[in-house]
Design a protein that fits this description.
By secondary structure, the chain is mainly beta. It is 11% helix and 42% strand. The protein contains five helices and 28 strands. The strands form eight sheets. It has a four-stranded antiparallel sheet. It has a four-stranded antiparallel sheet with strand order 2-3-4-5, with no helix packed on it. It has a four-stranded antiparallel sheet with strand order 6-7-8-9, with no helix packed on it. A hairpin with a 5-residue loop joins strand 12 and strand 13.
Amino acid sequence: MIRALQHFSDRLFGRGDAATTIPPFDGPLRPNQLLEAAPVALSLEGAEDLASDGKELYAAAGSRVFRLLGNEFLEIARFDAPITALCSVAEKSLAVAIAGREIRILGGIHDGKSWREAGGRPFMSVNAIARDADGGGVLVTEGSRTHRYEDWCHDLMARGASGRAFSIDFKTGDTRAITDGLSYAFGVCAADSAIWVSESWSHRLVAYKAARESAPILENLPVYPSRLSPAAGGGFWLTAFLARTQLVEFVLREPRYRERMMREIAPQFWIAPRLSSGHSYLEPMQGAHIKTMGILKPWAPPRSYGLVIRLTEEGLPIYSLHSRAGGSRHGVTSVVECGEFLYVLAKGDSKILALSLASIEQEFPR
């Protein structure tokens, strides 16, 4: 009863979950154009995820896995379905998520081992894999139990909350639940005695400890956070594959309009964030309040965006790398360090960017 009254009050006054306000990009999230200006290491159609053991760089695109050799990627494996996540679990050994429904080990002493379920529930949309703290297994996130990986936008518009995180032990083959009931889990990493999970539709990063004890690290972000990776100097890199806008927040709070939109309009033309934008005159949000005489206004809300955030070991943002509205390096879904470079996958642009770690540190001296 109290919960129902709270929900009614929030909708009446536009507070809490009914609020459409979005925090600004400010402080460590202050916009720049570092991703937009970054050198392109490779254009790879269908690129989905990156992985590295610190020495070798791997990329998943479509149903294939590539390894960087010199200045080109060489194919090292091919599967019968698209790859949705990739992780380097040991030297020359990878964990691969296939079609979001299977996790298979490629190379190493566990070569060929595979999993199709956790806790008795088959996989539907595995989207991120990371090494666990001791290297004896992996941590995994599954975005939704009701929508396939490629239908992430349907899950957002349906206000989905069926994501989960779990771990896999290579030696025993056992799986262990970390948490479930998440508003699209998309990204996980081991951090000391905790496990960090990105909860995209709730715009936050959460730490989970023993007995599913949770503590928020970052909340009310102006973006939808996604995959994480460790930084060699301590701390982490956090990607954001979408940016929030007030119009989308408003649509998410109007169920009748949203349901009719999903029923009658093609998904690419929904009022919803996208991994890339500006390719069709039929896209929403293109009127004079966005562009005048072909020029994008400085305050135009982004339908797509590119962002990487550098975090401390405690999860505090230090600085960020951007590709803003009007740019093309959008839909950033993966970032890894390899050698002296930071490699960033802009999935919306099918580009793998290579930024010198030394130049980034010079840009943001501590």
